[in-house]
Amino acid sequence: MNIALIGYGKMGQAIEDLALRRGHTITCKISSKNLQEFNPRVIQWADVAIEFSTPESAFANIATCLEAGVPVVSGTTGWLQRKEEIDRLCLSKNGAFLYASNFSIGVNIFFEINKRLAELMNKYEVYDVDVCEIHHTAKLDKPSGTAISLANDIIQRLERKKVWTISPPADNNSRSLYIDCIRKDPAPGTHTVRYTSEIDDITITHTAHSRLGFAKGAILAAEYLADKKGVFDMKDVLAI
Ligand SMILES: NC(=O)c1ccc[n+]([C@@H]2O[C@H](COP(=O)([O-])OP(=O)(O)OC[C@H]3O[C@@H](n4cnc5c(N)ncnc54)[C@H](OP(=O)(O)O)[C@@H]3O)[C@@H](O)[C@H]2O)c1
């Protein structure tokens, strides 16, 4: 498969390494230093584009690929307020787009456990809940895209939580779901969902030990998407 890498930082390089080992070809590598090469003529050689760039550039990058008729897998966080626009553009161009706030297979299983736990906890109002995410200090966005996905999945299932917030709530059992964002070095990416009561606590945690899991998931997603039309997510790739 021919892959265009849009964004060639830590993730782009990890994906290149693994993609070459799986027998794929990298047709272009775009960073802020060679943006002039990022045009429809160059990227249409690719069967699929994998986009891990910056919150500021992701929307335009994805739109450029879709306009050029190239399926796009994106993992960039911090731009999701415009995802619906991209979904509409994808459908109007009869293109293919797959977004995941986290490509690791383990995290996607964790997402499903989080949803089930929230369903179970909905009727047990003695438990309050919060989400905690810990990342290295170079991470640009806050909260992490993964923490936002966890929080939204809880809010959809737990009637006592209506919105998420990164400001500590004034009282326990607030209608806001608190996301505690901790930045420190070194820090493996860690996400915890905590249900707490006076009697006991229930905690689920996912810890990422390396970028390899994200890179592997992104390549699996690209292999899945190359011959598809429509808007997809990791649940489609992993069939969970
Ligand atoms: N979904 C997931 O599973 C997952 C996992 C890890 C990370 N992420 C997210 O993926 C994104 C990238 O992470 P990273 O660790 O690879 O960051 P990074 O190391 O900072 O790399 C960002 C890359 O984007 C390039 N870039 C800057 N402006 C650009 C533009 N206008 N068009 C195209 N590329 C541009 C940068 O170029 P220069 O180096 O020249 O500035 C760099 O190559 C972040 O949003 C991060 O939160 C998601």
Labels describing this entry:
240 residues, alpha/beta, Rossmann fold, Dihydrodipicolinate Reductase, domain 2, 2 domains, six-stranded parallel β-sheet, 35% helix, elongated, binds NADP nicotinamide-adenine-dinucleotide phosphate
Rg to the nearest angstrom? 19 Å
CATH superfamily of the largest domain: NAD(P)-binding Rossmann-like Domain
Q: How much of the residues is beta strand, in percent?
A: 15-25%
Strand element count: 11
Report on the architecture of this protein.
With 240 residues, the chain is of the alpha/beta class. It has helices spanning 10-21, 40-43, 58-67, 83-92, 105-121, 145-155, 212-225, 234-238; strands at residues 2-6, 25-30, 48-51, 72-74, 96-99, 128-135, 163-165, 176-183, 190-196, 201-207, 230-232. Helix 3 links the parallel strand 3 and strand 4. 37% of the residues are buried. The site of NADP nicotinamide-adenine-dinucleotide phosphate has 27 residues, from helix 1. NADP nicotinamide-adenine-dinucleotide phosphate (NAP) is lined by residues 6-12, 30-33, 35, 52-55, 57, 61, 75-78, 100-103, 214.
Outline the secondary-structure elements:
Layout: E1 2-6, H1 10-21, E2 25-30, H2 40-43, E3 48-51, H3 58-67, E4 72-74, H4 83-92, E5 96-99, H5 105-121, E6 128-135, H6 145-155, E7 163-165, E8 176-183, E9 190-196, E10 201-207, H7 212-225, E11 230-232, H8 234-238
Parallel strand pairs: 1-2, 1-3, 3-4, 4-5, 5-11, 6-8, 7-8
Antiparallel strand pairs: 6-9, 9-10
